[in-house]
Amino acid sequence: MSGRKQFDVNEALDKAMRVFWQRGYADAPLDALGSATGLGRGSLYGAFGGKSALFRQCLDRYASTYAAQYEQALAAHPADPIRAVEAFFDVVLDRIADPTVPAGCLIAQSAAQSPTLEEDNSSHVRALLDTQRTRVRAALADSSAGPEVLDELATFVVAVNQSLAVLSRAGASNAELRTVARLACTTVADTIARARPEPTTHN
């Protein structure tokens, strides 16, 4: 058919996503993106609206690829928020250990480069982190700790998640990363336990 695109948009996004994931936004030139996707500069602009718009679509592609796994892990233990956090970190660590994908996390890498991103993309990265925080916060809700403590713990869990990605890119071993995750889960459990109200005694 005349005018029909001769490429798979999702496949092109996946390939471009890997370039951004490996190199970061600033070090991912259009030539590299074109080589990865098989598209010329004009086709990239025509299909995706330029490098900045392509990057934003790759962020969404990355988030949607892994969001379902995170949500399933966090929702699998509705009465046990500690186990939910453990399951969340298990999914994160399995992704980090997957040899078929680049090291680290596209969102974590992009967050570290936020000062060099255009404002729209920087805000988009922040929104994706906020979504992750909201997801974790919901999993922690079924506990006796107060809202303020749970808000702080959700931020902590997201921070540890991003740190795991950074450490993995720096060459930390799987055993080291799992130690970090285990200590993070212990911190969450201890914090919730300390925040539990004391039982009322009657004379």
UniProtKB/TrEMBL annotation:
Where in the chain is the DNA-binding region found? 29-48
Supply the Pfam families for this chain.
TetR_C_13, TetR_N
Question: Where do the HTH tetR-type domain residues begin and end?
Answer: 6-66
Q: Could you tell me which InterPro entries the record lists for this protein?
A: Homeodomain-like_sf (IPR009057), HTH_TetR (IPR001647), Tet_transcr_reg_TetR-rel_C_sf (IPR036271), TetR_C (IPR011075)
Q: Could you tell me the keywords of this UniProt record?
A: DNA-binding, Transcription, Transcription regulation
Recorded hits in Gene3D superfamilies, A to Z, give: Homeodomain-like (1.10.10.60), Tetracycline Repressor, domain 2 (1.10.357.10)
| UniProt entry tagged with the keyword Mitochondrion | no
Database matches in PANTHER family: HTH-TYPE TRANSCRIPTIONAL REGULATOR YJDC, TRANSCRIPTIONAL REGULATORY PROTEIN
The protein depicted here goes by the name TetR/AcrR family transcriptional regulator
Can you name the source organism? Streptantibioticus ferralitis
